[in-house]
Amino acid sequence: MSGDVWLFAYGSLIFRPDFAVEARLRAELIGWSRRFYQGSTDHRGVPGAPGRVVTLVPGGRCVGIAYRVGPRDRDRVFGYLDEREQGGYTRQEVEVRAGGALLAATTYVAHAGNPDWIGEADVDELARVIRRSAGPSGPNLAYALELAEALRALDAGDEHVEAVARALLTSPA
To answer: If you count Cβ atoms within 10 Å of the first and of the last residue's Cβ in the chain, which end, N or C, has fewer?
Structure first.
């Protein structure tokens, strides 16, 4: 990698980037959807009791944030992210629409079959697991509700995340 690079964020990196960026744009990734299909034993759960975090699955569209990372910060930022996103996630190159242009970007995807993959579940089951899970980065409930709030602020229209957030706020514990 040389020069500036773009990073596409669709989960906690939207509301907790905690790294240096030179620009931040609302971005749309076509052909992928955000789903609570990935287990988290290192951030929002623990071994034996994984939480649920989002990943990308084929089909649909996903609104998030494109961050421009400058050349001086690139190695440090991606080194940090490789460590932060180690629980089943791998780097993937994608193309996003942001600021009226198509941008080549890097994102982190946890593909089906990785060791922490849990897969599909109905909304009530997702809410049950999220409500009871916590890990070194805090309660899984906080993650899910912060993500829903951040996506609303972006006018992202994510039906899956909204359905999970509604279940978390309305269904019994």
So the answer is: C
CATH code: domain of residue 51: 3.10.490.10
Nearby residues of 139 by Cβ (< 8 Å), 6 or more positions away: 44, 133
Whether the predicted pLDDT of 130 surpasses 90 = yes
Structure tokens at 140: 């899984």
Options 22, 85, 120, 149, the catalytic residue: 85
Active site residue 28: no
pLDDT score of 58 more than 70: yes
Distances in whole angstroms, Cα of residue 131 to Cα of each of 123, 124, 154: 12, 10, 24
Residues facing residue 98 across a β-bridge? 27, 101
Q: How many domains does the chain fold into? A: 1
Please report the pLDDT score of residue 87 as a whole number.
87
* pLDDT confidence of residue 3: 74
Q: Which domain holds residue 57?
A: 5-170
